[in-house]
Every structure is written in structure tokens, then in C-alpha cells.
């Protein structure tokens, strides 16, 4: 039924005002322009009431608290283990469930290629060498990706469309995105971002929440592991550079 | 939800401007104005391509209700002309 939010109240207000305005203007005053104004108020009230049904019941502040708690716990684990390597965002085809992030325990530039599905555990072996051990985390991006209705196409336009739908249309945390691809690099610009990026050990390793979302969607689009190479936030604009660890993408 | 606010703002301005402009031009019949409102609502909704499926479904329902009102008015006018 009707949810109690500002859209509902605005819609009901316009409905209650528009109905008598249109009726009195049409039947009593016989003024077409005033009737039309009443009708347009009714149209807007229907639109507002329809939109009010799609607002999440959980306030954004609660979501923010849950996110902060999760990130804090993750930061403690990463910090205690002294991990300095960059996280690798894996597509669902390599994790067997949802897209996740793998943090290798030993920073190794020649990381062995992950070819088989990883087990669903916290500490996993991802290669044949003795030091190929890492932590498999669900990140903000893992949870956010489930909100996308279709898998993004592996092109810059496909990724841009998916990210704008997710960040602007569904989550409302940015206004638009721009994506450019060159060889193994994907550059994503997020405009008017409303998520603040704090700098701590965990963020150095996993990237900020926005970078996590962008890397997860990119990994899933190209179905290849992706790492966050660079991340910068200036004002409302966030610049994220990703590297695909497989073959060239364009 | 900034995208919702932008959508509502653009729709409100479009409906208000249509009323003012069409009344000033002397094309202020109620049927004509309602048709213009309906077209504007449908076009603006289609332009907001980044709405998710749930929102799009709700707005399609509103569009269908408005279109059925338009069809009822059209039928009424047709019967009026024929008789």
C-alpha cells in the first residue's frame, strides 16, 4: 500500500488540491485554463504516488551504518594481517556465486592466473605455488551488483550504461559516469559523487566504495579479474582507473 | 533520490509551460491540453532511461491510466460528432 515518505505526502497534497480545482473550474467557473491546471496537478499527483511506492523502506542512514560496520571489520582484518597488496576483483564465474574480491596475502607481481572456480571460504588457495594464498571477501560492489537487472556488455558504452543505471538510477549516489577503455586499462569518471572516500589501510587495498562498485561491475562485464590501479576524488568528481588482468579488452 | 526530483521538476515545468503557451496561443481546449500533457508525460518518462524496472513499471501504469482517460474522451467526442 502507500508508504509514508515525502513523495506520498506531496502526491496526496496535489490530489486533494487538484481534484476540487479541476471540478470547480470545469462545472462552476467554466474556465478551461484553470481546469487544465487542476488536471496537470492530478497527473503530477499520480506520478508522485507511483514514485513513492518505489522508495526503499530502510532509511539511507541505516544503510550507511551497516556499510561502515562492514568496512571497519574488513579494515581490522586487513590491517592485522599487514596486507599491502591490491585486491583483485573476480567475476562470478571464478567465485561460483556473486562477484568477490581476492586479497593475496603476499604481494606478488607475477600472480598466477586464476583458471578454476575458487572455494567459498575466507582463506583460500588460488594457485599452485606455496604463497598463493589469499582472502576472499564480499565487498560493497558484490552486494551492489545484485541490484543490476542484466549483465553489462563488455564495451565502454555497456559499462557506462550499467554504472549510470546503478549509481544514478538505483542508488542515487552520483549523477552520471563516463567510461573509456584502452588496451587493459579502463578509466571511469563518476560525476557529482555523494559517497565520501576515506583513506585507511583497507581502502588502499580494496579501493573506496565507489571503486569497489565500479571494479565489480567491470569484472563481471568482461568476465575477467580486475584491479583498482588508481583512485582520486576531487570535489564531486571521482576518477578511477582499473586494470584487467587478462588479455586486452579493446 | 536526485533522479526522481529531476524527473518531477522537468515534468512540472513542462506541464505548466504547456498550459501557459497553449492558452496564450488560443489553443486552450481541454482535450488538446490533455493530449499534450499525455504526450509530454510519456516522452519525459522515456527520456529517463536510467530508471530501474520497478520505477518504470509504476510509471507505465500511470501512463496507461492517462491513456485510458484519453481514449474515453476521444470516444465521447467521436460519438458526439457522429450523432
Notes on the protein architecture:
The complex is a heterodimer of chains A (250) and B (83). Chain A has 250 residues and is of the alpha+beta class. Chain A has 3 domains: 47 residues; 78 residues, no CATH class; 105 residues, Alpha-Beta Plaits (2-Layer Sandwich), CATH 3.30.70. Chain A has 8 helices and 8 strands, in the order αααβαβββααββααββ. In chain A, helix 1 packs antiparallel against helix 2 and helix 6 packs across helix 8. With 83 residues, chain B is mainly α. Chain B has one domain. Chain B is built from 3 helices and no strands. In chain B, helix 1 runs antiparallel to helix 2. The longest helix of chain B is centred in the C-terminal third of the chain and has 30 residues. The model of chain B has no long low-confidence stretch (mean pLDDT 89). At the A-B interface, helix 2 and helix 6 of A face helix 1, helix 2 and helix 3 of B.
Features:
heterodimer; A: 250 residues; alpha+beta; Alpha-Beta Plaits; 3 domains; eight-stranded antiparallel beta sheet; 8 helices; 8 strands; 45% helix; B: 83 residues; mainly alpha
Judged by helices, strands and strand pairing, the structural class of chain A is: alpha+beta
Report the uncertain regions of chain B. none
Number of domains of chain A: 3
Model regions low in confidence, pLDDT < 50 over at least 5 residues of chain A: none
SSE topology:
The complex is a heterodimer of chains A (250) and B (83).
Chain A: H1 6-29, H2 32-52, H3 60-81, E1 88-90, H4 92-95, E2 100-104, E3 123-125, E4 133-137, H5 140-145, H6 156-170, E5 176-182, E6 185-191, H7 201-206, H8 209-222, E7 226-234, E8 237-244
Helix pairs in contact in A: 1-2, 6-8
Chain B: H1 2-24, H2 30-47, H3 53-82
Helix pairs in contact in B: 1-2, 2-3
Report a brief summary of the structure.
Chain A is of the alpha+beta class and 250 residues long.
Amino acid at each position: 500500500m502507500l508508504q509514508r515518505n515525502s513523495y506520498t505526502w506531496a502526491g496526496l497534497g496535489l490530489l486533494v488540491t487538484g481534484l476540487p480545482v479541476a471540478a470547480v473550474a470545469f462545472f462552476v467557473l467554466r474556465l478551461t485554463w484553470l481546469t487544465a491546471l487542476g488536471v496537470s496537478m492530478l497527473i503530477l499527483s499520480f506520478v508522485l504516488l507511483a514514485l513513492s511506492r518505489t522508495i526503499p523502506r530502510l532509511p539511507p542512514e541505516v544503510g550507511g551504518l551497516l556499510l561502515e560496520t562492514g568496512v571497519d571489520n574488513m579494515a581490522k582484518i586487513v590491517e592485522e594481517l599487514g596486507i599491502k597488496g591490491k585486491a583483485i576483483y573476480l567475476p562470478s564465474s571464478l567465485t561460483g556465486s556473486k562477484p568477490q574480491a581476492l586479497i593475496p596475502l603476499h604481494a606478488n607481481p607475477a600472480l598466477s592466473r586464476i583458471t578454476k572456480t575458487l572455494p567459498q571460504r575466507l582463506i583460500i588457495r588460488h594457485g599452485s605455488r606455496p604463497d598463493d594464498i589469499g582472502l576472499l571477501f564480499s565487498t560493497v560492489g558484490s552486494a551492489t551488483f545484485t541490484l543490476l537487472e542484466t549483465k553489462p556488455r563488455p564495451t565502454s558504452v555497456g559499462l557506462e550504461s550499467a554504472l549510470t543505471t546503478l549509481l544514478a538510477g538505483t542508488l542515487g549516489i552520483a549523477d552520471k559516469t563516463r567510461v573509456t577503455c584502452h588496451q587493459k586499462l579502463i578509466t571511469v569518471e563518476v560525476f557529482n559523487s555523494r559517497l565520501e572516500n576515506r583513506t585507511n589501510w583497507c581502502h588502499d587495498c580494496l579501493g573506496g566504495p565507489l571503486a569497489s562498485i565500479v571494479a565489480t561491475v567491470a569484472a563481471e562485464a568482461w568476465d575477467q579479474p580486475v584491479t583498482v590501479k588508481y583512485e582520486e576524488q576531487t570535489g564531486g568528481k571521482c576518477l578511477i582507473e582499473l586494470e584487467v588482468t587478462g588479455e586486452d579488452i579493446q | 533520490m536526485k533522479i526522481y526530483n529531476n524527473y518531477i521538476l522537468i515534468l512540472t515545468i513542462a506541464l505548466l509551460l504547456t498550459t501557459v503557451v497553449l492558452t496564450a496561443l488560443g489553443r486552450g481546449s481541454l482535450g488538446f491540453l490533455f493530449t499534450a500533457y499525455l504526450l509530454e508525460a510519456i516522452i519525459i518518462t522515456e527520456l529517463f532511461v536510467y530508471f530501474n524496472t520497478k520505477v518504470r513499471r509504476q510509471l507505465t501504469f500511470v501512463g496507461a491510466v492517462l491513456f485510458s482517460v484519453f481514449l474515453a474522451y476521444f470516444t465521447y467526442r467521436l460519438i458526439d460528432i457522429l450523432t
